[in-house]
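ESCALATION

Customer reports they have been waiting on this structure for their group meeting. Please prioritize. Original submission:
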Amino acid sequence: MEHGGDLITYGKYYEGELIDFSSNINPLGVPKGLDEELIKGFNTLVRYPDIKYRHLKVDIAKYLKCSVENVILGNGAVDIINNFILMFPRIIVFLPSFSEYEKRALVYDKEVIKLNYKEDFTLDLDALGKVMMPYDLLIIGNPNNPTGLRIEEDILIKLYEMVKCKHGFLLLDEAFYEFCPEDYDSIQMFEKDNFKNIGIIRAATKFFALPGIRLGYCCTSEDIRKKHEEVELPWSVNALADIAGRYIFKCKDYIEDSKNYIEEERKYLLKELSKVESIRAYNTHANYILIKLLKWNEEYIFNFFLKRGLVIRKCSSFNGLDNKYIRVAIKDRKNNIRLVETFKELEMI
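Update from on-call: job pushed to the front of the queue and completed.
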């Protein structure tokens, strides 16, 4: 299972509704009223969207607090990542990380330089400094997937200065940004430098619980935005995603409630999982938790949970992790309790 959320494959192994802990989607669901907006806008499907997405870019720029001239749109975050990979000759990734960074680079026959995170899953800046060359593209999840860790602010500044000094480009994949504690906003940090040598990607997929809409957005410099326009596909954002994007960012109560809810459930789940002696649950800043299995392998645990109606994410598909790791999403309290109880049942075997 290279990506989470594949319930169709495993539905035949459990009689009843499967609880999907493999996919990291906001447990509060979509913003209230979005369904009505989409229904009202159904008639827009009979014509092409605005090829420049002028209204959508204005709303996204307001939400991200950057200039419209700095905004890039795409068919999900991965579409934008794909286009950035097209623009650079060599790609650097830290492992473990989202598999599509490396995969998309190999599709285009790009040279891929793979570095390892330290044992605590923090960045190894010394290793990066030894390999980075001019025009390299460094792609990093912030927070990273599957580790859930966000780069500390002072380290991020050092990283950026190093990349800029080396004449490379830093692409931050911040698809899980809104779930993080509000310690810093990378867009505000780098706006004063006009996003020179940096792009910051976010998406409606996870936080707004809209993986099917496929709406990604990015802040970068105007010159890089123009280069991106040369490689991007026209009409990459469909009409319904356009409507959704012009609605969701105005849902301030939903945004605040979601942040508070995840913060509370994250603390609860980390506390409860720390009591399970046969696993090690790593700290996280996102809405998922990486777990090291101290007694079993991922296949045994996956099947154990599946028989009880829970689908977890096996992590050996992440380059840099072996079959001793799994990842679980943070969901609502009822299902989080069910997850903890299943781990406790496992302990008794």
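Sent to customer with the following note: The radius of gyration is 20 Å.
Escalation resolved.
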